[in-house]
Design a protein that fits this description.
421 residues; alpha/beta; 5-stranded mixed β-sheet; 4-stranded mixed β-sheet; globular
Length: 421
């Protein structure tokens, strides 16, 4: 009996050792804008409980420009420091050579049911290098109570936004709220400004910086007009500090009740509706305004999950990606954090639409968003975007006229193009 008990204990111990030997330790980088980090932590925990593996979440910069630089350093060194990476929708072409083909690890049907446009975007030379996690498009947030109080509907043009913002800002300050501003957006010299400025210019009929054939289109009168109007906002309806705002700084001003309008991504909805929000139940969301010669334009955003080619656990890392991008997880993230799903069927889910009503009313905005010119510019997209947001920042800062800035930008992009994009 004693020997039998010892044998059982030994077998149990061996099984425990085997289980420990099979358990893997992974690392994943998640964003920390809004509720991103908390939602990622919850998803990761659910996968850990299901599989027995462990995951460490690696902190990365919120600025997408700085995050890309970090990724490029890690991947160029062929380091396994980060197994699963959250990558921007414009990065697959830049990072593809360092990423696993998820069609091989997850199967050819891995992306079935996801938006075709994003799957195509994430497929480089027939290799699926990232799974769509959540998609994005810029939207306009506005104070329903203030517009109603002063007799206005949500603006349809940028000029209307400018005039309404100026009027309500003045009235509110006269009433005692000297912190009120008319409009906040992402004005720092980084990728977020590329998104904002592309929306202004495209909605004015000024093109998309570089067209689908790789031709540079940015130096035109419509683009100049769009930037000229935006420059008038600084120090007038937008604080000077907006020139250093990212998503979270803009949200902080708006959510504290000190802005009439805000351009941001859909994630800000759940936070604006949270119990501690100063503007809870007083916020509306509509498509972005347009210029005199174009229609509303919302920049395509969104993030994907990719597996580093240098991971020591490719199959397990791919399984984590499959879990986090699953229908169940995307539904949870949509309801809890208003992150746009990349699975079309979830836009008809009653629970999702109850939590985020504008997922239904702005569905076409999300499915027809304007892409940044990452496809035609390839590996040079980072340089193109950097040149564009710096030129835009110079105009907003009053350092250059829009005509001067766009002329110089055209010359700079021509030099970059000669390197063959």
């Amino acid at each position: 009996m004693y020997r039998k008990l010892i044998s059982v204990i030994a077998m149990a111990g061996a099984a425990s050792v085997a289980t420990q030997a099979q358990a893997a330790e992974l690392t994943i980088s998640c964003g920390a804008v809004g509720a991103e980090l908390a939602l990622c932590e919850e998803g990761v925990k659910r996968w850990e409980e299901k599989t027995g593996h462990e995951v460490k979440i690696v902190s990365t910069p919120n600025s997408s420009t700085e995050r890309l630089s970090l990724y490029q350093q890690i991947l160029s060194a062929q380091s396994s420091d980060i197994d699963v990476m959250q990558i921007d929708v414009v990065w697959p072409g830049l990072l593809a050579n360092h990423l696993l083909d998820l069609n091989e690890t997850l199967g050819k049907d891995a992306a079935e049911g996801f938006f075709d446009t994003i799957v195509t975007n994430n497929t480089v030379e027939d290799r699926l290098v990232a799974m769509p996690w959540f998609t994005d498009a810029g939207v306009l947030y506005y104070r329903k109570d203030l517009l109603e109080q002063y007799g206005h509907e949500a603006p349809e043009t940028w000029q209307e936004l400018t005039e309404i913002a100026k009027e309500i800002q003045a009235e509110e300050r006269e009433a005692g709220n000297d912190k009120m501003w008319g409009y906040v957006f992402q004005g720092r010299a980084y990728e977020g400004l590329t998104c904002n400025a592309l929306e202004w210019i495209a909605s004015y009929g000024g093109g998309t910086i570089v067209d689908g054939d790789g031709e540079i289109t940015i130096d035109n009168p419509q683009a100049q007009s769009a930037l000229e109007l935006a420059a008038t906002w600084i120090g007038d309806i937008s604080p000077n500090g907006v020139l250093n705002y990212t998503e979270e700084e803009a949200r902080g001003i708006f959510q504290s009740g000190n802005a009439v309008f805000m351009r941001n991504w859909p994630y800000a909805w759940s936070l604006a509706q949270s119990e501690d929000s100063e503007v809870r139940d007083r916020v509306g969301v509509v498509k972005l305004p347009h210029g005199p010669e174009g229609g509303s334009a919302a920049t395509l955003g969104g993030w994907n999950l990719a597996v580093s080619k240098y991971t020591e656990n490719p199959d397990i890392a791919a399984d984590l990606v499959a879990f986090l991008t699953s229908r169940e997880e995307q539904k949870r993230r949509a309801i809890e954090g208003s992150y746009n799903p990349t699975i079309a069927g979830l836009y008809e889910d009653e629970e999702v639409l109850e939590a985020v009503p504008f997922f239904g009313t702005l569905y076409e905005t999300f499915t027809n968003a304007v892409a940044r010119p990452s496809a035609p510019t390839g590996d040079n997209y980072g340089r193109v975007s950097n040149a564009f947001f710096n030129a835009t920042h110079n105009v907003l800062s009053g350092n250059q006229s829009s005509a001067e800035a766009l002329s110089q930008l055209d010359s700079e992009l021509s030099r970059i193009k000669r390197r063959r994009w």
